[in-house]
Amino acid sequence: MKRFSELSEQEVLALAITSEDEDSRIYRGFAMGLRAHYPASAKVFDEMAEEEVRHRGMLIDLYRQKFGEYLPLIRRQDVKGFIQHKPLWLAQTLGVEETRKYAENMEFEAERFYRRAADSARDASIRKLLMELAEIEAQHEDLAHKLGDRISKSDRAEEDEMARRMFVLQYVQPGLAGLMDGSVSTLAPLFAAAFATHNTWETFLVGMAASVGAGISMGFAEALSDDGSLTGRGTPWIRGTVCGIMTAIGGLGHTLPYLIPNFWTATAVAIAVVAVELVTISWIRHRFMDTPFLAATFQVVVGGVLVFLAGILIGSS
């Protein structure tokens, strides 16, 4: 692996050609990934991909003029300390805002590369082309930064709303389902164990087991429910992870107070935590699911109170 400073002019041009080809493919991938939900942004990335293809053609013409037909395969990963980008299949999973920021960073790195290459070039025509490309990439960096301004207000509003819906589908819904299940379903076994034993440590162990078990169960259930290809709910492993973690958090919230040695103090703190959990769930439903806050609170609190009372009655019998 060579350092950038050790590359010859022929190798620098070859590296620039392969880099432009890779960048155009990444932009095509962005456009393909965004087209279904963000067509206006996809069109901009198609144009940027075409521009990278044009740059590659300019570099190839100069390379043939200077060095002939043979083009050595030199890639970013072959040069020590050189800029490297995510594989295309990973880059396609970025959201629209992350994609815009990613493109801005790509153009900044490309500009820096061309300026460094121009500084080390001895041939005047090579230096001239590299400086021109550096200036073009600088303009592209500004374009990527202002990508949202290239899109009409109506298209941008539509894309922002689609991004919000995708966020709700892929993160909020599975997370909320997990939090509700963990907060409510673990109430009965936890408080049943508490009032049956009046032993805080044993109650803590029951709560831990219920929370972790529910997290694993809900995580697998969510991941296996669908692959997201038709519903647009995102990759199964992300949804399953979010749902499983939030389920465990929901149960652990009112389990941890039983680390307090005094039974009644621990129970009072646990009940207070349950109240906070139920209000939090109600707020999330109101904020992201457009459910009126009072209606959401009533629905969640009624369910939570019923499960809580069931646990106390069973434990006290």
Describe the structure.
The protein folds into two domains: 2-151, Up-down Bundle (Ferritin); 155-316, no CATH class. It is mainly α and 317 residues long. Helices cover 77% and strands 1% of the residues.
Oligomeric grouping of the chains: single chain
Count the beta strands. Answer: 2
Overall number of structural domains: 2
Mean pLDDT: 80
Report the helical percentage: over 70%
Distance between the termini: 74 Å
The biggest sheet, with number of strands, parallel, antiparallel or mixed sense and barrel status, is: 2 strands, parallel
Q: Within the largest sheet, what's the order of strands? A: 1-2
Low-confidence runs of at least 5 consecutive residues: none
Q: How large is the share of residues in beta strands?
A: under 5%
Silhouette: elongated
- Spatial extent as radius of gyration: 28 Å
Listing every helix as H and every strand as E from the N terminus to the C terminus, the arrangement reads: EHHEHHHHHHHHH
- Give me the number of helical elements: 11
Backbone structural class: mainly alpha
